Amino acid sequence: MNWNRILSGVGGILAGLLVAFIFFADVGQEDTTASSSDNQSKAEKVYVPYGELDEYYMFASGGHSGQLFVYGIPSMREIRTVPIFTPDPATGYGYDKETKEMLGGYTWGDFHHPAISETEGDYDGEFLFANDVANNRIAAVDLSTFHTVDIMEMPNMGGPHAGTFVTQNTEYIVMPTRFARPLGGEYEELDNYEEEYKGVVSMVTFDRDAKEFDLAYQIVLPPWSYDLSDAGKKMSGDWIVMTTYNTEFATTNLEINASQNDRDYIVLVNWKKLEEEVENGNYNELNGEKLIDPRDVEGAIFAVPVAKSPHGVDVTPDGTRFIASGKLAPLMTVFSFEKAFEVIENGNFVDEKFGIPILPYEEVMEKEVDPPGALGPLHTQFDDKGNAYNTMFISSEIVKWNIETGEVIDRIPTYYSPGHSAAAEGDTVNPDGKWIVALNKLSKDNFLSVGPSHPESADLIDISGEKMEHIMAVPTDPEPHYAQIIHRDKINTIEIYEKDESKENAVWNQEDTRIVRDGDEVHVYGVAMRSKFIFDAEAERPDAVMVKEGDRVFFHITNIDLDEDITHGFGILEYDLNFEIQPGQTSTLEFVADKAGTFPIYCTNFCSALHQEMSGYLLVEPAE
Ligand code: K7E
Ligand code: CUA
């Protein structure tokens, strides 16, 4: 059966023993043929008439595409792809000097968890942070321009999968590591795993004015694997909670060897305490970075047992509880911060593991929610009425339940195998309770076939009533992991880049354009405008540039069309170069003219009726 094949191909989570559950996936899927009046009312919910706008933005991670996909909710129309870790010729991202340097030579990233900057536990809509599991990076997207503005590669990390998440005032963007690794990534035998390998959590700060990251300090932990984690809110605001797996220290065949223990741990770390220690100079230095072992700090780290191999933990909007879901245990476990703090206060630890005090499960756990037949709970989202929503990877559904009572209120099928879901304002202290989008790993037979690999899919579900209502499914680009949904009123985009006379390399008037030669460097200070390039206004042909083979060429181009949406492109034939200049933006293209010949230059972004005429020449004179 097709379904069987698809599911067994998912690997990882669907280890052999779980294949037995596959049949649950089809059981309970409702008849999807709705009456035409039903369909009409659903269609009306997502129809945005011309001239009106979607109420929400959804920012969805693009996994190993390294990109961010932006959707309008409820229409589910994709409105923008923002390149973050991957070069993108459509915008010239990774081609112009600044973004090329930012990418640091990498051509891809693996982006899982977007985090919008927060103020008092609420999305403030200024920046969005992104993690790159593949190359230990963190990135910031400025939500006034939808441009990536900074990327930092973090040392000592082994794949920061569990990030990004932010503390409630974005004091820190937290990046826990997935793969244990020796510090600095040094060579070390796997036999020495327990002693020499570490799990590292990076605590990163972001300066909103300078738009720059800084690595404040790193927390050094036992070589467990850390999975999706969260920051506390309100009463728990000084804490971060992190799920762990592979507390078995398996170094091979993790699928089996890291699933031995009946319980793994949720680690609670008090970042305020660590911050204080670091400020007081109590840290170790390694290659200029500040490393701190929380076990050396009284009251900074604790752990509580949790059902085996959890995939994530989420803090409730009011900050009083944290909820863990286990890939290999079919239940959601609700823990109380208040109870945890009490145990910590009284010092009633049951055990110690690797120097970490272990809190008694029974005393910190508040309830276990185990809906019959619901399998593979992964992640939790919230509404404004005290309810939680869990995606069930294996039984392909979302389960709605009440946090206070643990009562299961409703269940709805998804199409198929959701990883995360995203609720409107779902990670904030004030979720909106309006929509939830299931981010599915499989689409099976939902859409026109595109061959053996089908698109991923997303289900839009209305959660405003007691019963959830499935509204529509759309294909998505690979690979959706997590998304955040923010009200459109919180996003304030600029219309053009402000004209800034002091901006380096910018030229604002045609008369100031010039070509400056300095040895074998050629700097072109030019403008792009409808519908021409001017590189040197005084030259016989202002749109031609003559260089010598081997010259290092810099095109500093300013788009002086200060009108919204008038973007110019700049492509050079056969040089594999293209970039984009948005209104009021100055960008630099740097390259070595290593091919002699005659190369047309043209505007690649349709900008005016005479866009086709917007061109020039690069003449590269052969070297002797
Ligand atoms: Cu895909 Cu959050 Cu990386 Cu779960 S993660 S599904
Ligand atoms: Cu400028 Cu097309």
Automatic annotation (TrEMBL):
Pfam families: Cupredoxin_1, nos_propeller. GO terms for cellular component: membrane; periplasmic space. The keyword Protein transport does not apply. The keyword Transcription does not apply. Keywords: Copper, Metal-binding, Periplasm. GO terms for molecular function: copper ion binding; cytochrome-c oxidase activity. Residues 519-624 form the Cytochrome oxidase subunit II copper A binding domain. Gene3D superfamilies: Cupredoxins - blue copper proteins, YVTN repeat-like/Quinoprotein amine dehydrogenase. Transmembrane segments: none annotated. NCBIfam families: nitrous_NosZ_Gp. PANTHER family: CYTOCHROME C OXIDASE SUBUNIT II (PTHR42838), NITROUS-OXIDE REDUCTASE (PTHR42838:SF2). This is Cytochrome oxidase subunit II copper A binding domain-containing protein.
